[in-house]
Amino acid sequence: MSPDSVYTETDPQPEAATEHEHTPAEPEPEAGVEPEREPPELDPETAARRDAALAQIRSFGDPVLRTRARPIERFDDALRDEVARMGLLMDDALGVGLAATQVGVVHRLLVYRVQQQGALAALINPEVEWSGRETESMEEGCLSLPGVLVDVDRPIYVRVRALNEFGEPIMIEASGLEARVIQHEIDHLDGVLILDRTSREQRKEAMRVLREAQQAA
Ligand code: NI
Fold it and tell me: Span 17-216: which CATH code?
């Protein structure tokens, strides 16, 4: 068993309020937090694209998912290409958010898109500057934890400062799903997973699902 699964079986941790990503929901766009489970109605081509994308995303047990990512200092074409590639991968995976660490790149970049037709957002070196006291618990999935859905309690409102892919400062006041996704993805940049933010019971059950999946693979 990898060190990181041992870690998650012990107790929760950090406080770094951050958020998550759901998987998908092409068929039902508003399902807030979606199922990593394959919706049965996915057409074969979409399903194949999704499988190919998921194969490029690091999954539980990979130590990179437990690594704290470094700040980005260079805002060049290579970075913008990376943003575009992550956006495509996220779309193919039917995710709403993706952090660079999930593709094995240990720097502080995340992308997300909460509205299907919306523009891709890229946040670089994001910091939660403020989060409201009010929290909400919702079920979250994660592209790196196939088959796992757990309840995660997070602040409903956050204000985040970051840089865009051109190095320009941006400030985002987010609520609801957008706030949740941003917090989930920032967690990834800190090596934190939804397993760390749920109840002991749900974490145990999730570990069982992950172990079974790994044995079946
Ligand atoms: Ni995730």
Answer: 3.90.45.10
Report pLDDT for 101.
Answer: 98
- Kindly give the distance from the C-alpha atom of residue 96 to the centroid of ligand 1, in angstroms, as a whole number: 9
Residue with tokens 């796992």: 148
Span from the CA of 19 to the centroid of ligand 1 (angstroms): 8
Residues designated as active site:
185
Calculate how far, in angstroms, residue 133's C-alpha sits from the geometric centre of ligand 1: 23
Q: 85 or 26: whose pLDDT is higher?
A: 85
For the whole model, what pTM was predicted?
Answer: 0.82
The Å distance, Cα 128 to ligand 1 centre, comes to 17
